[in-house]
Write a structure and sequence with these properties.
Helix content is about 75%, strand content about 0%. By secondary structure, it is mostly helical. The chain has one domain. Strands 1-2 form a two-stranded antiparallel ribbon.
Length: about 325
Amino acid sequence: MTALVARAAAEPPRRRIGLSGTAVAAGLILGAFALVPVAAQALGLPFLVVTATRMMIFGLAALSLDLVLGYGALVSFGHAAFIGIGAYAVGILDAHGVHDLGLQALAAVAACALFALVTGAISLRTRGVYFIMITLAFGQMAYFFMVSLSAYGGDDGLPLSRRSTLAGLPLLEGDLPLFYGVLAVLALSCLALHRVVGSRFGRVLRGTRDNAVRMRAIGFAPFPYRLTAYVAAGALAGLAGVLLANQAEFASPAYMSWQRSGELIVMVVLGGMGTLVGPIAGAAALIAVEEGLAHYSEHWRLGLGLLLVLVVLLTRGGLAGLAARLTGARP
């Protein structure tokens, strides 16, 4: 599996949605999410708001991974560690009486950026399967570290006393306010990454993905660009962890497991690597299929696995690549 993912990252799909097409596609996806509360009320299905919020949170986490996987060809199997660190930043500060969302988010982003800087500086000196294994090792180290912290729940996790406040106000209380808060964060993140990948930095990062030797020959050292992208991706994933902790009102070491990292990779590959909108669509599709199959059978993981195999084999470039072919979008 790791070899196939590494090959897919090293050889991105030929047909891509351009940056302008990405903006339009992102607008359509975000607009569809914005209509979920209306549909949930009309259908009498309030759980749709909770499910859509979870989709957007994991879409944000997958979007952060796409920055290094889709644009940097770096297959990280420890990316979920950043989600867990972000969640525990909320949980630990909450346990000590700090409930302000701004302080919690700042602590989460700082902790994730520092962890990414240290581990990335080491991991990025390796390539291929070795990079995959070392990121997996760092992710498991973070996982077992949190399991060992009995003061903060250990393996049982850490419940929050309440959701975060903003300027002392309980603005995230209730599923609907949290939904719109997550939607706003996702929209701003899409806009920021859209600007980043279209900038000189983004072009150099894509160049190192396609041919690192050639980039060195023209005067660009790949290491600092890859490390910067790795740190930025970790910080953004930490923000997703902050939102996940608030939705579940719980922080758990399970957020940091290698299985969760694998799910994030599946979301990116399913949606389409290097497209920005693909990871969001992939996260939404994966969670929707999980919910649907789990409703009909306790063996839903078997059906999910078969479906994912078919999607990967039959749709080059994932859902974004399929959309590009159907709409005639140019690379």
